[in-house]
Amino acid sequence: MGVGVSGLSAADSQFETGLNDVPEGCISSIYMFLDPPEICKLARLNRAFRRASLADFVWETKLPSNHRYLVKKVLGQTPDSLCKKETFARLCRPNRFDGGTKEVWLDKQRGKLCLSVSAKALKITGIDDRRYWNHIPTEESRFETVAYLQQIWWFEVVGELEFEFPPGSYSLFFRLHLGKPSRRFGRQMCNVDQVHGWNIKPVRFQLSTSTGQEVSSECYLYDSGKWIYYHVGDFVVTDDSNSPVKIKFSMMQIDCTHTKGGLCVDSVFICPSEFRQMSFD
């Protein structure tokens, strides 16, 4: 009896299977339903899972529909020179273009596109007059520098962007800070002595696109010492938009009955509207 049982166990052991026996095609099919971070974790299990994670058709589903445009414009390469996994990995890094004044990246979790425009790419009234504005270095900006307003009567900031976005709804923000940031003895400081005038009249924000969308809003600037994302408005890119969309945006407070000052203009931030409830910093 004992010999029979032993023989049966030996026979069964010949048909035992493990993760190494799962066909790569099956693994790749499963990957298509997972987020990129989950794929990367599973790829560490063994060689089969790692090889399956390299399949182009897996990462094709994670990339935005405009990824070929991004590779050419942002990475400066031909789309077919990179495998799809490498394309996704490189587009997830912050990539600067247009002389380093703009930065674009993909959200690693969902492959959604985000874009930032530095203050140096904006048209700011009086920016060349040191009596009104200065560019100051700071570690609190992804562009390492911000435009700081000391005092002015006519406040106006205007920007334009022409870019090919994947279809979807997008939100546009101005990233602003009341007070002058600095660092002392290794600690972040904020001087609010020059902050004034923003509680008298609201700032007017405007957004328009080449597809005929327009939106405007007004808001008082608030909370000195904090970086705030002021929502300008939303715009929609439709499925049939296979060409770049031109966007114009602005913020102004041109009531010349009083001066205003003590404001840092860092950048303009564009992200999918579904990200609006997220904490950006």
From TrEMBL:
<feature type="domain" description="F-box">
    <location>
        <begin position="16"/>
        <end position="62"/>
    </location>
</feature>
<dbReference type="InterPro" id="IPR036047">
    <property type="entry name" value="F-box-like_dom_sf"/>
</dbReference>
<dbReference type="InterPro" id="IPR001810">
    <property type="entry name" value="F-box_dom"/>
</dbReference>
<dbReference type="Pfam" id="PF14299">
    <property type="entry name" value="PP2"/>
</dbReference>
<dbReference type="InterPro" id="IPR025886">
    <property type="entry name" value="PP2-like"/>
</dbReference>
<protein>
    <submittedName>
        <fullName>F-box protein PP2-A15</fullName>
    </submittedName>
</protein>
